[in-house]
Amino acid sequence: MHRKIIYIINPISGTRSKQRVQNIIAKETAKAGIDFQFMPSVASGDYSYIEQIIIEEGITDVVIVGGDGTVSQVVDSLMHLPIQFGVIPCGSGNGLAFSAGIPKTPHKALDVIFNNQAHRVDGFRVNKHFACMLCGIGFDAQVAHDFAKANQRGLTTYIKKIFTNFFSAKAYSFKIKLKNKSFSTSAYFISIANSNQFGNNFTIAPKASLSDGLLDVVIVTDQPKFTLLYNTIKQVGGLNSLQAKESIDANKGVIYFQTDELTIENIDNAPVHIDGDPAETQYKLHVVIQPDCFKLLVGKKSI
């Protein structure tokens, strides 16, 4: 089958020059003998207007040149179509790309696109909002909100926002409802992960998989700041075991379990992010996996 690609470029994600990246993409895609065109990302996040172009022109692949937030918006709009999605990571975290074995350099990411190995992967919904990778509530969401307001992008700015927020961070009250269990907890943050990435190869949910039909839930509970650091490092290092949902201990420093669905009552209105983008704070968050919902071009050793 002859491939036709639409590249959607987010001009403001990350710090890399998009004109340079676009030039590389154009040169290498032409060299590979694949028809292609460029389109800019849109602020609304609604890409349904591309649907007619995809159908009429026989587009086979939509490749997002941007970060996780743009990927989620494009996939949500177009995943009902018989197309493959690719990523050339240009965001600040690029968690989905790293989970899928997609390198950060444009030339190597294009190798993944041209290799044409696509697998069906999961997404999930937070109320009605689609997510490819991660939803965070609490501390990391506050970092995401502050980062979105910053004049500069990139990893350095993100790290600065982490340190700025750490000393003033507080715990929030939550009630967690699963199918056969409910519990209350006070926590600095809750991460609901479809991938094993926070971004930048920072692993918050080591057992997470893009294609297992499950969400990994990590709750870092209220504790002294020194212990908080210690337990978070243990979690990132893969030293905390998964807990069975039936035997969750709400008093542990880190609660780590898997589920296909949960409801969170956000009692103190903790901030929320979805795939790194600030989201509306809501009292009740219903989170449910959407298994095998889109085809993603992945690296050889990822899935």
TrEMBL record:
EC number(s) from the headed UniProt entry: 2.7.1.-
Record SUPFAM superfamilies: NAD kinase/diacylglycerol kinase-like (SSF111331)
Broad class of enzyme this protein falls into: transferase
GO molecular function, one term: kinase activity
Identification of the protein by name: Lipid kinase BmrU
Species of origin: Mycovorax composti
Keywords: ATP-binding, Kinase, Lipid biosynthesis, Lipid metabolism, Magnesium, Metal-binding, Nucleotide-binding, Phospholipid biosynthesis, Phospholipid metabolism, Transferase
Keyword Kinase: yes
One of the Pfam families matching this protein, by short name: DAGK_cat
Cofactor(s) for this UniProt protein: Mg(2+)
Domain DAGKc: 1-129
